Amino acid sequence: MSDIHEIKIGFIGFGNMAQAMAAGLLRGGQTPAGQIFACARDWDKLCRNTQPFGMIPVHTADELVQQADVVVLAVKPYQISDVVRPIGELLAGKIVISLAAGYPFDRLEQDLLPGTHHLSTVPNTPVSVGEGIIICEQKHSLTAEEYGLVEKLFAPLGLMQPVETHLMGIAGTVSGCGPAFVSMFMEALGDAGVMHGLPRATAYRLAGQMVAGTGKLLVERGDHPGAMKDAVCSPAGTTIVGVAALERKGLRSAVIDAVDAIQNKK
């Protein structure tokens, strides 16, 4: 598996997140469609979501694991045990990647045969356009070579961020729930643009690219968000007036409360 272009990746379960990852892999260009396999309960739906793009649907998890070098467990957390245990012997020789939130290394280790090489992750949906985040648990059983291979395989999807086990939940909330919060902000910003005369499509396009560019600037430069905000706020200028209005309305506390509500629900 030294050549990244020859790696076969198989998705057990092909819901929204698995489809997002597959789309990102195809977009990246280094994984041919014919190297991507998927299985799911609804065969007709699976075929609709794979065959038009050149990906290969298979009927069973057993068949998929036999085809793939890297097996991605993309089913719901409560389904992991039932899916994994019958194919444990087949998985023992593969690189196993879990996408199940709340299913860290130690828990997955109980479902897999001893010695199986696996890594637990939490991706977000922007992986489909190559600007996503894949939270990776620092505790894993991949070899250094296998981990490097996974990094190369997932490089087109965006940022891979390792975190300690006890931080997987909050990291997943920030990166996985955050797109919903940002989408609400973009929608509101677009509405404001429309209120002042912009065509809605233009307003949304401007808001989307502004968020994408600002986020990329932060990640690549490593600047503090406060410093980036300050750089746009001229003395007695227009931006600081808007910032002050957001502060009065409690934007920061609202976002913190939203994340806190999610963490307290778990």
Shape: elongated
Strand content: 5-15%
**Helical residue percent?**
40-55%
**Low-pLDDT regions:** none
What is the total domain count? Answer: 2
Number of helices: 12
Instruction: Label the CATH architecture of the largest domain.
Output: 3-Layer(aba) Sandwich
Largest sheet: 8 strands, mixed
Q: Please count the beta strands (DSSP E, at least 2 residues each).
A: 8
The helix-strand sequence is EHEHEHEHHEHEEHEHHHHH
Strand order of the largest sheet: 3-2-1-4-5-6-7-8
Instruction: Write the CATH homologous superfamily of the largest domain.
Output: NAD(P)-binding Rossmann-like Domain
Measured between the Cα atoms of the first and last residue, the distance is 39 Å
C-alpha Rg, in Å? 21 Å
CATH fold node name of the largest domain = Rossmann fold
Mean pLDDT equals: 95
CATH class of the largest domain: Alpha Beta
Describe the protein's architecture and organization.
There is one protein chain. The protein has 266 residues and is α/β, with parallel strands linked by helices. It has two domains: 4-163, NAD(P)-binding Rossmann-like Domain (Rossmann fold, 3-Layer(aba) Sandwich); 172-265, ProC C-terminal domain-like fold (Orthogonal Bundle). It is 52% helix and 14% strand. It is built from twelve helices and eight strands. The protein has helices spanning 16-28, 43-50, 61-67, 80-84, 88-91, 105-111, 144-154, 168-195, 200-221, 225-232, 238-248, 251-265; strands at residues 9-12, 36-39, 56-57, 70-73, 95-98, 117-123, 132-137, 158-163. It has an eight-stranded mixed sheet with strand order 3-2-1-4-5-6-7-8, with helices on both faces. Helix 8 (168-195) packs antiparallel against helix 12 (251-265). The chain is elongated, with a radius of gyration of 21 Å. The chain starts with 8 loop residues before the first strand and ends with a helix. The relative contact order is 0.09.
